[in-house]
Design goal:
This protein is an alpha+beta fold. It has a single domain, classed as CBS-domain, CATH 3.10.580. The chain has 6 helices and 6 strands; from the N terminus they run ββαββαααββαα. The strands form 2 sheets. The protein has a 3-stranded antiparallel β-sheet. The protein has a 3-stranded mixed β-sheet with strand order 2-3-4. Helix 5 crosses helix 6. It is globular. The N and C termini lie far apart (37 Å).
């Protein structure tokens, strides 16, 4: 049985919940990713913010990205999995919640993230999603 730690991305990018949204955008750009996990001062994960969140809640609303914090735009209710969980558990949670990313948390500590793309590459490497997920950025 395949487990989450075999497919997850280790050391995911995080941003402090009080940071301006511009910092989240910079971290996404620099790491060439579409999301960052949001952390509290104690290091616990309290949310996730995506490039789509920034586009819809900041840019489309004409808000000032320097005055809005990540806390203002992130999703606060997040599902998670443990590194030893079976991959099927992540698939089920993603399917049931219509979500694309799951933090991997062991004993209250963030150890990784598993994405829909990670699962596509691992479970169906010939799929279009796997091809897109593995392709170099085109920007």
């Amino acid at each position: 049985m395949q487990t989450i730690d075999q497919v997850m991305t280790r050391d995911p990018v995080t941003v402090d919940e009080g940071s301006p949204v511009t910092e989240a955008a910079r971290r996404m750009r620099d790491a060439n990713i579409g999301d960052v996990l949001v952390s509290r001062p104690d290091g616990s994960i309290c949310g996730i913010v995506t490039d789509r969140d920034l586009a819809l809640m900041v840019v489309a609303e004409g808000a000032d990205p320097n005055s809005m914090t990540v806390r203002d735009v992130c999703s606060h209710v997040i599902e998670s999995v443990k590194s030893g969980d079976p991959v099927g558990k992540a698939v089920s949670k993603m399917r049931e919640g219509a979500i694309r990313r799951l933090p991997v948390i062991d004993d209250g500590k963030l150890v990784g993230i598993v994405t829909l793309g990670d699962l596509a590459i691992e479970r169906d490497p010939e799929s279009a999603l796997a091809d897109i997920s593995e392709a170099p950025p085109n920007n």
